[in-house]
Design brief:
Elements lengths: L2 H41 L17 H25 L3 H8 L4 H18 L3 H8 L1 H18 L5 H32 L9 H30 L4 H20 L11 H11 L4 H34 L8 H26 L4 H21 L3 H29 L5 H21 L5 H25 L3
Helix pairs in contact: 1-12, 2-7, 2-8, 2-9, 4-7, 4-15, 5-6, 5-15, 6-7, 6-9, 7-15, 8-12, 8-14, 11-14, 11-15, 11-16, 12-14, 13-14, 13-16
């Protein structure tokens, strides 16, 4: 086994142990809730004078399980479709289609620009016409984006990236908005299924799917000899996801069309009247912007370190990507352990710690050029990503109301898309520019850590 295979095997062992311990803990919690529900039914069996007591209509473990059974399969399929594309999109454009670095950067920029523009309206449209319908639209739009890579026509490739940007905005807003609103409407807070644990489980599942997607995608590429194969496989994931959404999901709406006052209130939120929302927007901009720049630059950064070590063999990008996702999965399970199980710190404190740690990991890659050290530092960054998303999702769930949840979530993505567009539009070949990007992101994340500590409340 080579270096990357050993790291992936270690990641699988550590994560497998954590998953097993979490599974046993969840089973104990479910058993305890069932016993409590059984006792409540017995106590409600008869009231005074032999008349039945009032039946407790509170949500039960079965209603929570019904909710997870219709949400998580879709979530897994949708993120599986996305993760299948991730490791191969850069090398598809750069190595297989032989496009210059500047054109590749413009393709990525087109996607982020489309994401920024669409964030202005997709959330409000989802609130008005239904989040379920928006999720179905995502499946159709992303399928068209995947089909575009089969062409070598540059105009079609740019159109595909624009559709991909629109699809990404939908993916990061409407699915979460539907889930949180449905959770609240079903009043599941009274069960053992807590919203924070759902967000932790979402990232854990996403990481598992990402590891599998990286490995499966690598197999498809080896079998077919083309990096287009994983994109076709993505469509095969989106078809059953659409079917489940159409058949099993109920529709929920926001208040976008109900009253002008609601729109005014949401505008005030983003203009900074609510400092917590402004803080979340800044955090999202800098952290997620850094994450997407990392997605663009990790491959050439490792290739550069590989060449500095006088190695000319091809890097196993699928295995490396799977290792990154293993680190992210570990981060999501640490989030659940720290916040839900042990309660070692508050969500705000955890978010602040994660942002500062991510800052340090990016900065260190500039000073340590060893291929192995760079890889491990990237794994630390992915560990932070795994803790960041459930922490951010939980904070947004507390701060933003259900009425315009998709609308606000969409608007929060505008600054980060602009941030990435500006950075990618200035992209140049070589290590110097990449190191400048990492140092800039590190500095911004350090500032964000301080802002979170001051303005975000527990």
């Amino acid at each position: 086994m080579d270096f990357y295979q050993i790291n992936l095997a270690a990641s699988v062992l550590v994560n497998g142990s954590m998953v097993y311990r979490q599974y046993r803990q969840d089973k104990r919690a479910d058993l305890s809730e069932r016993i409590q529900g059984f006792d409540a039914e017995n106590n409600n069996g008869a009231g005074d004078g032999g008349h039945p007591a009032k039946v407790d209509t509170a949500p039960t473990a079965s209603s929570a399980k019904q909710f997870t059974n219709i949400f998580f399969p879709v979530y897994v399929l949708v993120w599986g479709a996305d993760w299948l594309q991730g490791p191969f999109i850069y090398t598809l454009y750069k190595d297989e289609k032989k496009l210059p670095e500047e054109i590749v950067a413009r393709l990525f920029t087109t996607g982020f620009l489309a994401g920024a523009i669409s964030a202005l309206f997709v959330g409000s449209l989802a609130d008005r016409f239904g989040r379920k319908n928006a999720c179905l639209a995502y499946c159709a739009i992303t399928s068209l984006s995947c089909l575009s890579v089969l062409s070598n026509n540059i105009s079609i490739l740019f159109a595909g990236r624009a559709l991909g940007g629109l699809g990404t905005t939908l993916m990061y807003t409407v699915f979460e908005a539907w889930m949180v609103t449905e959770y609240n409407q079903r009043a599941l807070e009274g069960t053992s299924l807590k919203l924070s644990s759902i967000f932790g489980r979402m990232i854990t599942l996403s990481s598992v799917v990402a590891v599998l997607a990286g490995l499966v995608g690598q197999v498809f590429v080896s079998w077919t000899g083309t990096n287009c194969a994983p994109f076709v496989a993505s469509i095969c994931c989106l078809i059953p996801a659409s079917f489940i959404i159409a058949r099993k999901w109920s529709e929920n709406f926001g208040d976008s069309g109900s009253a002008p006052k609601e729109k005014k209130d949401s505008l005030k939120l983003l203009l900074g009247v609510d400092k917590q929302v402004l803080t979340l927007g800044l955090t999202s901009c800098c952290f997620e912007g850094s994450m997407y720049l990392f997605i663009f630059f990790w491959s050439p950064a490792l290739k550069s370190s590989h060449l500095l070590a006088h190695q000319h063999s091809a890097l196993p990008f699928g295995i490396i990507f799977a290792s990154f996702m293993g680190a992210m999965m570990l981060g999501s399970m640490l989030f659940t352990k720290i916040l839900t199980d042990k309660r070692w710190m508050t969500c705000r404190e955890l978010l602040q710690t994660v942002v500062v740690l991510a800052s340090g990991s990016l900065l260190c890659t500039v000073f340590f050029r060893s291929e192995y050290v760079t890889f491990w530092l990237f794994c630390v960054f992915e560990l932070c990503v795994g803790m960041y998303f459930p922490a951010m999702g939980y904070q947004k769930g507390k701060v933003v109301g259900d009425g315009e949840r998709a609308h606000i979530y969409g608007l929060l993505r505008i600054p980060f898309n602009i941030f990435v567009v500006v950075a990618l539009s200035l992209t140049k070949e070589g290590d110097a520019y990449r190191e400048t990007i990492f140092m800039t992101c590190s500095g911004l994340l350090l500032i964000v850590g301080a802002v979170v500590g001051v303005f975000l409340h527990d």
